[in-house]
């Protein structure tokens, strides 16, 4: 797959995300106090800090560490919504958090990327913010998302018809981009596969766990905790790989490897995690319609 087409990958992914969102999703976000606060704190602060510690703990090479941080900065989206629906999570909360994360990622992705490159590539010195890369990531994330939201708002029926083919295109692109990434960096992957897969799996399990325990500790309902766990714990590997491989942005195949590994194993880890949670959490073993208030109606 030619590197020149990787910016198109980013555009397709963010357009697909935008088409799933409505103006009401953003309006509803203003009514969610506790879920919103927990999700934003986890997504913007806790996860990047945890990811940084995991990269240091596994002593990842600099480019792989930056790639892991880039993956952590990307939002979730369609996969989290589908899994939430399948496992009886709070889908309305999922859609709202997807809208919030889409907006947050416009700033979070380039900022976390800039910090990561300074931390891991600076060799003890400060690397100034590369405004061309910052603005490039900003534009590629913002513009197609806004177009998708605009299409959904003005032409809802047309947007619904577009969702299926764009999701199929995104799935095909995921396979192609993973194959292209592994082919470009097979030597690095084979050398660091053990430690890298351990780091990616650790981050995946940790982010899902944080996404579940944080709302439960705040006494939010189990269905909401599942929704937040998937939204916080699932990340858009295609977006991360597209940013890493685009010649206009990072143009670094090694930085795309963590997201490629994540794209292979994350879904299986998420399915196993939610299955275990539903077996262990008393809320799902012995559900009671009056045991927990619905935060969406009481926020």
TrEMBL record:
Molecular function GO terms recorded: transferase activity
- Which key words are in the record? Membrane, Transmembrane, Transmembrane helix
Which Pfam families is this protein grouped with? SBF
Q: Which GO terms describe its cellular component?
A: membrane
Report membrane topology.
Multi-pass membrane protein
Cellular location of this protein? Answer: Membrane
Q: Which InterPro entries match?
A: Aminotrans_II_pyridoxalP_BS (IPR001917), BilAc:Na_symport/Acr3 (IPR002657), Bilac:Na_transpt (IPR004710), Na+/solute_symporter_sf (IPR038770)
Q: Where are the bilayer-spanning segments?
A: 6-24, 36-58, 64-83, 95-122, 134-152, 164-183, 189-213, 225-245, 257-277
Q: What is its main location?
A: membrane
- Keyword Cytoplasm among record annotations: no
PROSITE patterns xref list:
AA_TRANSFER_CLASS_2
Q: What is this protein called?
A: Sodium Bile acid symporter family protein
Organism, scientific name? Mycobacterium lentiflavum
């Amino acid at each position: 797959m030619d590197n020149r087409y990787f910016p198109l990958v980013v555009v397709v992914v963010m357009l697909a995300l935008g088409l799933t969102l409505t103006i009401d999703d953003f309006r509803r976000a203003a009514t969610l106090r506790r879920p919103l606060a927990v999700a934003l704190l986890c997504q913007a602060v806790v996860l990047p800090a945890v990811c940084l510690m995991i990269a240091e703990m596994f002593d990842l090479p600099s480019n792989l560490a930056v790639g892991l941080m880039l993956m952590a900065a990307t939002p979730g989206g369609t996969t989290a919504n589908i899994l939430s629906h399948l496992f009886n999570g709070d889908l309305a909360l999922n859609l709202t958090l997807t809208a919030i994360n889409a907006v947050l990622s416009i700033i979070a992705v380039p900022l976390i990327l800039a910090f990561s490159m300074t931390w891991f590539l600076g060799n003890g010195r400060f690397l100034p913010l590369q405004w061309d890369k910052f603005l490039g990531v900003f534009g590629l994330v913002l513009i197609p998302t806004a177009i998708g939201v605009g299409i959904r708002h003005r032409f809802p029926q047309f947007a619904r018809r577009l969702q299926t083919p764009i999701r199929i295109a995104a799935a095909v692109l995921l396979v192609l981009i993973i194959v292209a990434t592994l082919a470009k960096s097979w030597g690095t992957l084979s050398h660091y596969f053990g430690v890298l897969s351990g780091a990616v799996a650790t981050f995946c399990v940790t982010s899902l766990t944080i996404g579940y325990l944080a709302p439960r500790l705040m006494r939010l309902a189990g269905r909401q905790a599942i929704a937040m766990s998937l939204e916080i714990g699932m990340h858009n590997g295609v977006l991360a790989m597209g940013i890493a491989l685009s010649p206009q942005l990072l143009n670094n195949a090694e930085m795309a490897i963590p997201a490629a590994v994540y794209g292979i194993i994350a879904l299986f880890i998420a399915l196993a995690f939610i299955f275990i949670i539903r077996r262990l959490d008393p809320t799902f073993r012995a559900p009671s319609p009056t045991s927990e208030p619905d935060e969406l109606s009481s926020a």
